[in-house]
Specification:
The complex is a heterodimer of chains A (about 240) and B (about 250). Chain A contains ten helices and no strands. Chain A is mainly α and about 240 residues long. The C terminus of chain A is likely disordered. Chain B is about 40% helix and about 25% strand. In chain B, helix 3 crosses helix 4 and helix 5 packs parallel to helix 6. The longest helix of chain B has 16 residues. Classes of the chains: A mainly alpha (about 240), B alpha/beta (about 250). Chains A and B meet through helix 7 and helix 8 of A and helix 2, strand 7, helix 3, helix 5 and helix 6 of B.
Chain lengths: ~240, ~250
């Protein structure tokens, strides 16, 4: 078979795998994205002793291979099956998709926490003071001043993290999740045609390209106040006399 | 004639950073319509004192009363923390570096306090913000971001932002020190107009002209204490202390 015939024959499976890859990546990144802001705040503000467990978690997640983390959850949960059954958690861990999602979410949470911590530390202190001076409550200052800046600063790095996570999600195929890689291996074992791996690579490439495009759109929106287009810089304009 | 009511009262404010005692017991009372200029060489504690008034800096000890609401501080702990946000919302504050929220337009900066802190309806807040920006001469800059405005324009937006909260008094922390010389005038002019309409203002400044001509009272800080205090004319023509005399001869 030539490469095109492979595609024509097997595209539904590849598409199915693509959806699975997207589902894993998006859900994993989203869960991490929901948890990481509070963890990042702890990293910035909490006393060193209070955040020791968090630092340990982050070091572990960043310092060990994601494949090892996946195996730890997938095979490790099997070891504790009786206990997990007792707690009613076995139905969750029995499904390889859940194990993969948990591994990716845990891993990405660690990275996103550190990225966001950097963003929070980059927020201009004076703008926080201005918000305090006007009588804003702490939660409001976070929502109206700190996080808008922190996300703008962290945005490119967060995008990178999502792309890395998307590629790492191919590891899920090792624990029998049928993502792009899983489907590809399945097709290869039937056809022994190497070209299917090229199609898989192309799928990953397309996902990344589309993602980068979207992310850049969002970045432009987030930082529109820095290089607002089409408007002249103030310094280029003569000062208009105040009427006050 | 009735005595003008007291807007803000600071009693025996002490502040230490570690072992360094920056403020050694400063008391100050601002009555309605007062314009108080705080002078002093760098390191005299004038900015720190101003920042203690709205608790951007927590005093080590002392008492601050704004419109009857008082906060007593002992051992660096304010006794009624809940009132801090309330007191802050009653005091406007201007900064040396303007500190506009750079991700919001001029108009959004001015609307932020009324909408987010006072929970005013957006439409009302917008109308008033537009009027205030017009008042500081920026009606054609309303939709620009701070990065598109000059320093003087940014400080005028900051003034509008403070006014939008309808504060009982406004604190100015060297509002013209970061400005290019040619932009100082536009900000001083707005400040002058605020004084003329009877706003209560406490101004930390190096602008001797402003202190002398606009303020109703001058306070001179030296090494964390009030060294001299009085009406500007008297103080500038007949300084009572040697330190103040030296100070005015240096800045002239």
């Amino acid at each position: 078979m030539n490469p095109l015939e492979i595609l024509i024959e097997y595209w539904p499976r590849l598409l199915d795998g693509t959806l699975m890859t997207l589902k894993l990546t998006i859900l994993g990144a989203l869960i991490a994205g929901l948890v990481s802001p509070s963890l990042a705040l702890i990293r910035v503000h909490a006393a060193p002793m209070a955040q020791a467990p968090l630092r340990l978690y982050v070091s572990f997640m960043r310092g060990t291979p994601i494949l090892a983390q996946l195996f730890l959850i997938f095979y490790g949960s099997g070891q504790f099956r009786p206990t997990l059954e007792e707690w009613g958690l076995w139905t969750f861990f029995r499904d390889p998709f859940n194990c993969a999602l948990l591994a990716f979410a845990l891993n990405s949470t660690a990275y996103q926490t550190e990225i966001l911590r950097g963003g929070i530390m980059g927020v201009p202190q004076g703008e926080i003071e201005a918000a305090k001076a006007i009588g804003m409550s702490r939660p409001k200052i976070l929502r109206r001043v700190v996080f808008p800046h922190a996300y703008r600063i962290a945005w490119p790095a967060l995008g990178n993290e999502v792309i890395l996570l998307m590629k790492a999600s191919a590891l899920a195929s090792v624990v029998t999740v049928f993502d792009v890689m899983g489907r590809t291996r399945q097709i290869f074992s039937r056809t022994f045609d190497f070209s299917v791996y090229l199609w898989a690579a192309l799928v990953y490439l397309c996902i990344t390209a589309a993602f980068v495009l979207l992310w850049r759109q969002a970045e432009r929106r987030l930082s529109r106040h820095i290089h607002a287009p089409g408007m002249p810089r103030a310094s280029a304009q003569p000062f208009k006399e105040s009427q006050a | 004639m009735t005595k003008p009511e007291t807007i803000l009262k600071a009693e025996d404010i002490h502040k230490s950073f570690g072992r360094l005692e920056v403020l050694k017991g400063i008391s100050l009372e601002a009555r309605n319509h007062d314009v108080i200029s705080i002078l002093g060489s760098s390191g005299s504690g004038k900015s720190t004192f101003l920042r203690c008034l709205n608790f951007l800096e927590i005093p080590t000890s002392g008492k601050v009363t704004v419109h009857g609401e008082e906060i007593l501080v002992k051992n660096g702990k304010p006794q009624n923390v809940r009132h801090i946000e309330d007191i802050r919302s009653r005091l406007g504050m201007l900064f040396q570096q303007f500190n506009l929220w750079t991700h919001r337009t001029a108009l959004e900066n001015v609307m932020e306090g009324p909408v987010q802190v006072k929970r005013e309806p957006k439409a009302d807040a917008r109308d008033r913000a537009e009027a205030l920006l017009k008042r500081v001469g920026l009606e054609d800059r309303m939709h620009m971001y701070p990065s598109q405005l000059s320093g003087g324009q940014q400080q005028r937006v900051a003034i509008a932002r403070a006014l939008a909260m309808e504060p009982d008094a406004i604190l100015f922390d060297e509002p013209t020190s970061a400005l290019d010389p040619e932009l100082v005038g536009e900000v001083l002019k707005v400040m002058q107009s605020l004084a003329a309409e009877g706003r209560t203002m406490i101004v930390v400044t190096h602008e001797m002209g402003f202190a002398r001509e606009v303020s109703s009272e001058v306070v001179f800080l030296h090494e964390g204490r009030i060294a001299e205090q009085g009406p500007p004319d008297e103080m500038f023509t007949h300084p009572k202390t040697e330190v103040f005399e030296r100070f005015i001869s240096k800045v002239k």
